[in-house]
């Protein structure tokens, strides 16, 4: 058996079509959607990733501003940049890109991102709202997993999903998105031993730990669907996921590739979220709209 | 085999000792800790529960104010009560008691409880902070489960815990507390069928759904530890949990009773949290303390 490849490209295309509709609606309001990415590193891989977000935004008609504070930026400087951008009417989406300089913790700073502009779901308030089922942006990577599964019509309700990884960026928000879709979810991590105890019966396995080859065919139930969130750069420069693709493909029915899977969808979601934030932030008050609709044309 | 009873009483006693220490420290600062419970119902069971909280607070030297807005209160009235209490220097803990009047949703109102006074972890911001590992009060019922397990020295790290119930009040915050203690956690719910698929291998099963007798011996692995969060009032007035105690006790190694288990601990935690909030809210700034410690006596 060789597993079906769940490519990210057609999923991203569908999301870009949605973005296009939003950009047109915003243009009608005279609004140019704006995304700001705050960067404080000279890590080449990170800067490459930020440029890829900027390119995707640009292609979609979303203005992307990279606020580069340099690898020597301090926590206060970053916090005040986020506060200023939160108040800036021309900015509708804000991302704080990691890694940050040594000693600067992202998890304290993200509270300075206005929840309405928190397009990568980093502020704890966004995570809390997601948990209780209120409106909030989910972290783009977590949502990308669900978008791929839904695009390929893989049912979630009543299924057992094993999420390997408990990060605040992927594992924990993904759990909320899966529970909302009536999946039964097991959250595994480095202390879950043996790992196959928690993955071998699951219909869907999501690997989101950041360890190359952690999940192999031996961890899977025949016919399982596998989503690989890992993006690990090997010493030789190769990009690989958390799943060992050869053995997994022998057992799984479907598998997302790395690269070309989750990452492709994540970038498209960041741009889509920015247009959704812009629509919400520039919405006319309900009373004004009600008045308009009562005015005879 | 008959399961050991995991009584709440000794756990509550230990928490009350901690509360006593806090109250003494607050007295030293000239602070009387204050808890406010906002009520908008004439449901007799609820009012009885609120009186039991007030009694527990009173015994511990914590002033409890019941703000009874009546069964006809509207959302705005409740929101402004919560906002006023959040600004009141004599109030250190705030609880919004459910049920609320028909058409009034608690989940929108709890955002008006200051996170620093949110002693029952109801504000989405508290849930988000709990998720990312920042300081926040956990919902008292969720924390009560963990307090009982830790009191009876039941290990959590590396164990499989199956949580039946995905509410924002118990299941979801409990999951965070368990993950932080390195348990592997499965969250089950009404769409998890058959339920025993997700409970029969777990070392610990927590039932938090609100359905009498949902979990029976047939759902359990021999020797499992079972925590019953359910508090269901039957037509004949009896209070029963979500676990069928006779069959469960035949298979489990330990089981919390209802009543006398989780509920007993929950009330003690609400009072303890109020004293912890009072300590944090009335703490002298670090600089002032540093200065003091340098002053020779």
TrEMBL record, chains A, B:
SUPFAM superfamilies: Aminoacid dehydrogenase-like, N-terminal domain (SSF53223), NAD(P)-binding Rossmann-fold domains (SSF51735). The gene is folD. Its EC number is 1.5.1.5, 3.5.4.9. The keyword Oxidoreductase applies. Keywords: Amino-acid biosynthesis, Histidine biosynthesis, Hydrolase, Methionine biosynthesis, Multifunctional enzyme, NADP, One-carbon metabolism, Oxidoreductase, Purine biosynthesis. NADP(+) binds at residues 165-167, 231. It holds the Pfam family THF_DHG_CYH_C. Residues 139-279 form the Tetrahydrofolate dehydrogenase/cyclohydrolase NAD(P)-binding domain. This is Bifunctional protein FolD. It comes from Kocuria sediminis.
């Amino acid at each position: 058996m060789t597993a079906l490849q769940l490519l990210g490209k057609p999923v991203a295309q569908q999301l870009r079509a949605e973005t296009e509709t939003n950009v047109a609606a915003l243009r009608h309001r005279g609004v140019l959607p704006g995304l700001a990415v705050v960067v404080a590193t000279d890590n080449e891989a990170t800067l490459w990733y930020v440029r890829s977000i900027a390119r995707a935004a640009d292609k979609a008609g979303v203005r992307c501003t990279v606020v580069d504070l340099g690898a020597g930026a301090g926590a206060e400087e970053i916090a005040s940049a986020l506060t200023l951008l939160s108040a800036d009417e021309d900015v509708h989406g804000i991302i704080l890109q990691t890694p940050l300089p040594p000693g600067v913790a992202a998890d304290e700073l993200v509270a300075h991102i206005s929840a309405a502009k928190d397009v990568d779901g980093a502020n704890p308030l966004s995570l809390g709202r997601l948990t209780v089922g209120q409106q909030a942006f989910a972290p783009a990577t977590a949502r990308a997993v669900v978008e791929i599964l839904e695009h390929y019509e893989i049912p979630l309700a009543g299924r057992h999903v094993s999420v390997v990884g408990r990060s605040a960026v992927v594992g924990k928000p993904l759990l909320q998105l899966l529970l909302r879709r009536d999946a039964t979810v097991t959250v595994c991590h480095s202390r879950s031993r043996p790992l196959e105890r928690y993955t071998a019966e699951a219909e869907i396995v999501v690997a989101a730990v950041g360890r190359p080859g952690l999940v192999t065919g031996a961890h899977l139930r025949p016919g399982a669907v596998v989503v690989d969130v890992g993006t690990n750069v090997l010493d030789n420069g190769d990009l690989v996921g958390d799943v060992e693709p050869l053995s997994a493909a022998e057992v799984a029915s479907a598998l997302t590739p790395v690269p070309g899977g989750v990452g492709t969808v994540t970038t498209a979601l960041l741009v889509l979220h920015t247009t959704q934030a812009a629509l919400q932030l520039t919405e006319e008050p309900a009373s004004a709209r009600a008045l308009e609709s009562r005015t005879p044309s």
